[in-house]
Write a structure and sequence with these properties.
about 170 residues; mainly beta; Jelly Rolls; 14-stranded mixed β-sheet; about 5% helix; globular
Length: about 170
């Protein structure tokens, strides 16, 4: 990875702003509420293919990401996803991200699940409610995060799936 990209990723994670959203305990959401997951283009080409659609749409301004929306960064792309005010996922170039689930679970915490089919990302996870879980599915593995800074590098053509922890704990299966 280029040194400039590493610096951009570090800066992108360090800059977190937003307005929190409080939902009543016991509420179950099939679709994230408005502005629950926000996508910002930091650099280059980023597209979103909305759930049920087949044609990617270029992104230039910040937008909401909904359930089963697919975000792809191009060869020059860099994007930041912000959720729950202080949880940030930064997608590096040639990354393929899909939001799989986002809801208040029966235990009163959030469940957030996304998949990465290829690419590189880093994240800073702060879950505001107890009993929350944040999971990442790769083609051959799954990571459960326990409030941490971590990332993954996935190259499907050669079967590479690596998770790395910068601070905190993850379960890697």
């Amino acid at each position: 990875m280029k040194p400039r990209r590493i610096l951009l990723l570090a800066l992108a994670i360090g800059i977190v702003t937003g307005v929190g959203l409080v939902l009543p305990t016991g509420t179950s959401l099939a679709e994230p509420p408005p502005e629950m997951v926000t996508l910002e283009v930091l650099e280059g080409t980023v597209t979103v293919t909305r759930s049920g659609e087949f044609i990617p749409t270029p992104v230039t301004d910040p937008i909401e990401v909904g359930l089963l929306d697919r975000v792809q960064t191009g060869a020059d792309g860099l994007a930041r996803l912000t959720m729950l005010e202080n949880t940030v996922v930064v997608l590096n170039e040639n990354t393929d991200f899909t939001l799989r689930a986002f809801y208040l679970n029966a235990d009163g915490g959030y469940t957030i699940v996304f998949s990465i089919d290829q690419g590189f990302f880093v994240s800073h996870v702060e879950l505001p409610l107890p009993n929350s879980e944040f999971r990442v599915r790769a083609p051959n593995s799954e990571v459960t995060v326990h409030g941490t800074d971590f990332g993954m590098d996935i190259v499907p053509g050669i079967g590479k799936e690596e998770a790395f922890v910068l601070d905190g704990l993850i379960d890697y299966q």
